[in-house]
Fold each of these.
Amino acid sequence: MTISNILASKLKDASLATDKALVGDEWVSASSSGKTFEVTNPATGDVIAVLPNLGQAEVARAIEIADKAQKAWAKKTGKERAGVLRKLFDLMVANADDLATILTMEMGKPWPEARGEILYGASYVEWFGEEAKRVYGDTIPGHQADKRIMVIRQPVGVVGAITPWNFPNAMLARKMAPAVAVGCAMVSKPAAQTPLSALALAILAERAGLPLGVFSVITSTDAAMVGKEFCDNDKVRKLTFTGSTNVGRILMRQGADQIMKLGLELGGNAPFIVFDDADLDAAVEGAMISKYRNAGQTCVCANRLYIQAGVYDAFAAKLAERVGQMKVGDGFAEGVTTGPLIDTNALKKVEEHVADAVSKGAKVALGGKPADQGGLFFQPTILTGVTSDMKVAVEETFGPVAPLFKFETEEEVIELANNTEFGLASYFYSKDVAKIFRVAEALEYGMVGINTGLISTEVAPFGGIKQSGLGREGSKYGIDDYTELKYMCLGGIA
Ligand SMILES: NC(=O)C1=CN([C@@H]2O[C@H](COP(=O)(O)OP(=O)(O)OC[C@H]3O[C@@H](n4cnc5c(N)ncnc54)[C@H](OP(=O)(O)O)[C@@H]3O)[C@@H](O)[C@H]2O)C=CC1
Ligand SMILES: O=C(O)CCCC(=O)O
């Protein structure tokens, strides 16, 4: 097992990049099978780490140890748990540069954006650390004269977490922080493409005083095996997953036997609507962030841009001017706004969506091809003349492609926007207050950005309806997913 010098030499604290996995209370450098896997930099193809490829026995061991550790952790006061999370927050901020370097190298997003993700991940740790002291219950007036009723919240127990490659730090931090805050233990499995950020988080958590065993990071390329063990092992009481809707469905089926409590943050197909009365410059800025951040590889990325006929051409021209200023390249290079896609499958999907749209009559207003850098880079793209029969209308592209659909009326665009099995994020721009309420209430989505393209914050409930998932992450509601309510009825009160 190794960490390549390409990565280690870029870090101020090289010990934050580890080639060991955290299985329960032990950092392990080899799997029982002796198998390993490589982590590569998607911008260059360089191997940056070789990690142990863990098997079922190791996942089960991590769960066994988590089960014991959880009981002791849950006995700590909220204030004690808050103290650990506060220290973890401070460490994440202090080490944000190194954490960003690890993230950019394994995932490819531009370094400043990666640093933004670290601070975003840390904000969940800070928020839920504060919430640890406020896991309140209720008292309810008794239903009989001698009865008193109390409701308390208790941790669900051991939580399995499976996280994706597109936000290797923040997606794990926003699961781990509420779980640990309320007294759960967590066994996590990051995407095999981006395990180093998760391991760095675990190193800092240990330094912050989180007892070993409370948080594990399993490194494995056999995601299906890990998911199955999480679902079959009766010590795991909750499974939280961020990723594709398809895998979400598999986990839901697998979890049925033990009625697994599930948190699912799945795919989206976000509409981004610009009405004739919108502030066009603001709408273009919103589209830039909502569509192009992380090279379009975000589940809340605008996937379908609906522009009202009266401003369609003006919006397309303004957007093209801004997108034309974007710079594609290695995430460590100065001024780069768009890194590589995560892998060849992602690149193929983007190419296929563009080719399908063009074959059905769309025009490439900008980009449309792999970028000059070759490899996994794709040009920031704008398609005009897009219609509902094209793949970009129904599937998540997960790439830097903005398809512009033209619409005439409010009723028409609401119907188009809601015509999907997904219901995660949606966005629209208008200055008309009555329309703002009408449209926001009519959109069948868990989140609506109104005159903004950026809705993510630790203080708000992030999550979807329809086939975009179950549960909410962040905010006071984020605690609900990791606690069970217990009602106590006290009789004989004379
Ligand atoms: N909601 C979101 O934020 C995300 C949505 N997506 C959507 O999904 C598409 C495909 O991306 P992809 O990375 O393949 O997403 P996946 O859903 O396959 O991967 C997400 C996580 O699930 C794991 N996983 C894969 N298969 C299983 C399984 N059978 N049981 C348990 N865990 C599993 C992966 O592990 P491993 O990577 O090690 O195989 C990873 O940790 C994207 O193009 C995008 O549309 C993708 C990522 C995030
Ligand atoms: O793609 C995702 O699942 C993560 C969305 C990042 C965010 O919180 O904005």
Amino acid sequence: MRDNVARLYEALRFGRWFRKPAVTDSIQYLSKSRNDKIEPHECIAPDNHPNQPNLDDPKYISWLKEHPSALKVFQGILNAAKGRQVVVFLDYDGTLAPIVDDPECAFMSDAMRSAVRDVARHFPTAIISGRSRNKVYEFVKLDEVYYAGSHGMDIMGPSMQLKSYECKYQTKALDKKGNEFTIFQPAQEFLPAIQEILDKLNKRTHDIQGVFIEDNRFCISVHYRHVLEDDYDTLEKEVLSVLAEYPRFHLTRGKKVLEIRPSIQWNKGNALVYLLDTLGFSNSSTVLPIYVGDDKTDEDAFKVLRSRRQGYPIIVSSSPRETSALCSLHDPSEVLSFLIRLARWGATSS
Ligand SMILES: O=P(O)(O)OC[C@H]1O[C@H](O[C@H]2O[C@H](CO)[C@@H](O)[C@H](O)[C@H]2O)[C@H](O)[C@@H](O)[C@@H]1O
């Protein structure tokens, strides 16, 4: 089955990576990138120790008491997992890969890839990202996991199609051997408008230095990490003026990014429920979902688990934050330790 997933992704994949930042002048690179004229060159190596938590900060210490480290309460998680089906959900940026200056260079380490692979050998595992599904696959390159891109609006999940979800959004994908997958895309009707919005955003922000607009298929990211502070208001004004022409879309905010999304009742939380349902794990008493994520959009999934009183929502953060998560991990390096321990336990308990 894994080979089949690989072949299907081969067929679906399009567009090579062509935008790489200049080592010495990423602002210049980012402002030019929309013209697609930059020659490929090396990505800047990420800082291996970003954002160390401030353990002297009383606010962080008291936050940690409310959201203890998932590594510290690991045995408790295992106790809860005994006799239950563990299902693992992972965000990508800031969780499996560190936050870096250039969104096109957010690579995950081989160690992380290997840990995710090991986890997926023992437990059903899905990656739910704001990026397009194809792009996440390009980064992760694992055929052992399910993928949900565009904040859950583009899911490649188990073959089961559910009557409770509108048929028109679920299509079957078959490989040569007849193995089946389900592609679930509840925002398909928005695709033409998304292309229009992309064109308008590119034109209207063309003169603002440092903007990078990322096509995430069912949503759009307008990155401003490299925009001068003085230019930010102009950028936001332009984005809002485009958005005003499309009342069926709305704006959300992430890490140095404005995101334009179709206004449908569908987010990472819905994607989590959809995947649990299609995996056949709707019964909450026998299933233990673990969701690890770092961004505001992951809060939708945390809330679902909290409202179901089910599983472990884990936030990745090195500073105190308002969250619905139960536990925390500082950064992707702690996520790695957590996944390694989980995989080890999976190996011994199965
Ligand atoms: O849901 P996620 O997988 O966490 O994706 C959320 C957004 O992540 C990416 O942007 C963020 O990470 C970049 C690379 O580290 C960083 O440069 C940027 O400032 C962050 O906002 C991705 O590029 C976006 O499209 C995703 O929506």
